[in-house]
Amino acid sequence: MTRLEGFDRYIQDAMTSWHCPGVAISIVRGDEVLHRAAYGLRDVEAQLPMTEDSRFAMASVTKSFTAMSVALLVDQGKLEWDKPVREVIPEFILNDPYATAHVTVRDMLSHRTGLPRHDFAAWRLDLPRAEFVKRLRHLKLSTSLREKFQYNNLMYYMAAHLVERVAGQRWEDFMQEHVFAPLGMVASNFVPEPPHTGQVNANGYRVDRDEEGGAKGLIPMPFGAHTELSPGAAGALFSTLSDLTRWLTVHVNDGRLGDLQFISPDNLKQMHLPQMIIPGGGFNEALMGNTIFAYGMGWFIEPYRSYTLIHHGGNVEGHSLIVGFVPQERVGLVALTNIAAVPLRDVLLYEGLDRALDLSDRGWNAKFHAMIDPLIAGEEKARQTSADERVEGAPPTHPLDAYVGTFHTEGYPDFAVRVAGEGLAAPDAPATGDPDTGEATLEACLVGSLDWNPVRHYHYDVFEWDLSVFHEQIKLRFLTNDNGDVDAISIPIEPAVDDVTFSRKEPELTTAIVEALVGSYQTPVEGLAFRVTAREGKLYAAQTGAPPREIKPYKLTSALVGFRLDRVRLDFTREGDAITGLVIKMPSTTLEARRAP
Fold it and tell me: Could you say which of 254, 391, 487, 571 has the lowest number of CB atoms within 10 Å?
C-alpha cells in the first residue's frame, strides 16, 4: 500500500508529459478497491473536472463484453464455442469456401478467420447486421483460416448478430438485460447519450504537433457518430470508471460479483486462455522483453514478470483506455484517458500493477517516452516525405470535373467525389475555386460512412484524400478506360490485400431523359437505323433487323447521354432534357444518326 500512496503524483506527472487533459483510474484486488480517483479535466474548453462517473467511449474494450455475451449463451447451452457459425447463420459466407464452412465462434472472437480488417467496409454505416452479412462474401481474405492473427472488427459485428439470432432479441437489449442490469452498470450503454439524466461524457482530444512532433496544443475530437452496426459490438460501448470497476471485479473473482455468480468459471477461463499466438519481436520485445504474445476471446494475453497479464485497450475519438488484470493475484486496473494516440493508458497499467504487486520499479513512463517519442516525430516526418516525393509540374490529365462521380465496388460503401461544397446531382457542374488560391478543389466521402473530406491533387492522376479525423492521408489513383474517360479509382483501403478498384457507377437517368431517348434514329447508311424503347425503367436499343438489347448508361453530362453495348458506344446528344441526335462509335467506324420525326 505504501507505493500506491505516491501514485497520485506519478499519474499527474505522466499526464503532463503526454499532454493529457484528464484521467480516471482504479485498481482492485479481489473485492477490494485499492485505489480509485479522477484527475484533470473532462472538458478543457469549459474547465470541467474529470470525475469517476464521467462517461468515456470505450472503443475496443467493447470486445470483452461481446465475448461475454457469447459466453453467457454457452453457459445456457444455447451455443458452442467450436460449432461452425453457419449452423446458426446459414447465410454467413466468406470469400473462401473452406473458411465459410469451418469458421467457429472461437475463430471469430480470436481474430483468426483469415479476414483482415476491412474496417472501411462497415465503419459507421447505418446498416442492419443481417444486411451486412451479405456483403462479407465480397471481402478478400489475406490468409487461410487459423493461419495468422489478424485483428478484425467485422467478426465482432457478426458475433453480435449470432447472439441476436440465438437469443431472439437485439444484441444491445441482451447486453442491458443480461450484463449491465445484473452487474449494476447504471451508466453503460451503446450510444453517446447517457442512460440517465445528469450523467456526463468526457470530451476527447488529440495533440496538435509541429513538423518535429513537438506539442503545440490540443485539438478537440468529434464525438459519438456511432451506428448500431459500427462500431457496434466491436467498439460502441460507453461506460464509466465506476461501472468498469464492477466489470473488472467479475474477471478477477472467477466470474463472481459479490454473491452473484455471473458467469461460470469454466467459460470465463475460455475467454482468458490463449487461443491464437501473436509473434513478438521488434518494438514489443524491446519494450516488454517478450517474444510471444497471444489473444484469447476479447482479451490480449502476455507473460508479465512471472505472471500472466490479461488486458484489452481501445482508442476512438480522443479516448484511449485499457482494462487489465493478473488472475493469479486477483489484481486488476482500469485506466481511462481523454487523449488520442499516446500510450499513457499503458504506462498507467504497467506502473499501477507493479505498485499493487510490489514489484521493482521499471520507469515505465520514461521507457515509453524513449520508445514512442521518435515514432511521433517519424509520423510527422512522413508527411514531409510524402510532400517531398511529389512530382512537381505533373498536372492531372483531365479537368477536375472529370474526376467527379460515384464509384462502386462490392462489399464497400460507394465512394463519391464532388467539387468542394457541391452535390453530386450534376457531375458535370463547373468546378469552383479555392477562395485563397483560385484553384478548383475536390472532396470525397464513403457514402453513409465517412464524411466529406478534402481531396488534393498530388501528381498526374494521383490525389490525396485528407482524413483529418484519423490524422492521415490516403492516396487515390484515378484510372482511365480505352476512350480516355476516368472510369475507376484504385484505393489502398485495406493494407493487407491489393488496392481495391471502385468502378464508376452508372448515372441515374430521370424519367424525362428516358422518355426523350425513346424513338428512332436514322444513319446515313441506307437500311441502317436504331430504335430505342423503354420497358419497366430499362432502355433497349435495336438496329434494323436485330432484336432489342438492354443498354446501360456510362456517362451523363449537360450535352451527352452515353451508353455502351458490347464494344459499341451510343452517345446521344442533348440540350436539357431534349435528345437531338446520336453518334454511334464502333471500333473502326463512327456514324452520326439524326433523330427521326
Answer: 391
